[in-house]
Design brief:
There is one protein chain. With 270 residues, the chain is of the alpha/beta class. It contains eight helices and seven strands, in the order H-H-E-H-E-E-E-H-E-H-E-H-E-H-H. The strands form two sheets. It has a five-stranded parallel sheet, sandwiched between helices. Helix 5 (158-175) packs across helix 6 (200-211). It is globular.
Length: 270
């Protein structure tokens, strides 16, 4: 009897396992599948994103090009004082301020290619005493060439002016390969003559761009404003009647100053 009961219990247990086994297997498979399933929808913090490129704060700065600050200045140049004979083989190119040097200055043996209203833009269209710009720089062999242009261009785009000015300098180099080239900074105007178009801030900026053309080897930048300025950086009112041009008597002072800003061939800069 006991053996019979044991056998019956065994049969019932086997039957139960047989019936329940599909459900158990399915449950185990589902649990296993849930563990292996990738978690693709979990939000990821932007701070923890791997290998994300850093945003460079310097990219905008790199595109914002500032005017060059290393343009040659007079303090870097070893100038010599010479007498007026130094200018016997000089050519002066410029606008009405250069006309003043020609008419009232002391360099009587120099040559001049200058006119009231001359600009860097239209210098090739100038004809003075039946002489063009090309004629003037081919007239003879010059030892020095002085340029002062810009007061008539200061209200225009400074980069356009610089391009025209650079072309003048390069042409002189070709036609006068042995000449020293002096770029003269534009003379300031008096405080009473300043306007929205012509003012000393604009002239200073233009002068800084022109100074960048100097290499302190063949081309030099010089600036007369150190002599004519008042305490506010304007042309002294007592030196002018129209606020733009020096009085005749002060062109001698200009020539005296130029005599202190000379380069002798063979000398080197500091």
């Amino acid at each position: 009897m006991k053996k019979f009961k044991k056998s019956a219990y065994t049969l019932i247990l086997m039957a139960t396992c047989f019936v329940a086994s599909p459900f158990i297997v399915h449950k185990i498979w589902k649990s296993s599948s849930d563990v292996k399933k990738p978690i693709s929808n979990t939000p990821v913090s932007a701070d923890s994103t791997p290998d994300s490129p850093e945003t460079s704060s310097s990219s905008d700065d790199d595109n914002d090009v500032q005017p060059a600050t290393d343009a040659p200045v007079e303090s870097e140049i070893l100038f010599t004082t010479s007498d007026v004979s130094y200018f016997d083989d000089a050519l002066f190119i410029g606008d009405s301020r250069t006309v003043g040097i020609k008419e009232y200055g002391t360099f009587k043996n120099s040559d001049y290619f200058c006119s009231v209203g001359m600009s860097a833009y239209k210098i090739d269209e100038e004809e003075i005493n039946d002489m063009t710009f090309d004629n003037a720089i081919d007239k003879k062999q010059y030892g020095k060439v002085y340029i002062m242009l810009g007061i008539n261009e200061v209200g225009n785009d400074s980069e356009v002016t610089l391009t025209s000015y650079r072309a003048i300098v390069e042409k002189i180099k070709v036609h006068q390969p042995d000449a020293i080239i002096y770029i003269q900074g534009n003379l300031h105007v008096s405080a009473s003559a300043e306007s929205d178009t012509i003012n000393n801030n604009a002239l200073d900026y233009l002068n800084s761009r022109l100074a960048s053309l100097a290499d302190n080897k063949k081309v030099f930048y010089i600036d007369i404003n150190e002599v004519y300025d008042d305490e506010n950086g304007c042309l002294m009112e007592s030196y002018t009647s129209d606020g733009i041009h020096p009085l005749a008597m002060y062109y001698t002072k200009w020539c005296e100053w130029l005599c202190t800003k000379t380069i002798v061939q063979g000398e080197t800069t500091e």
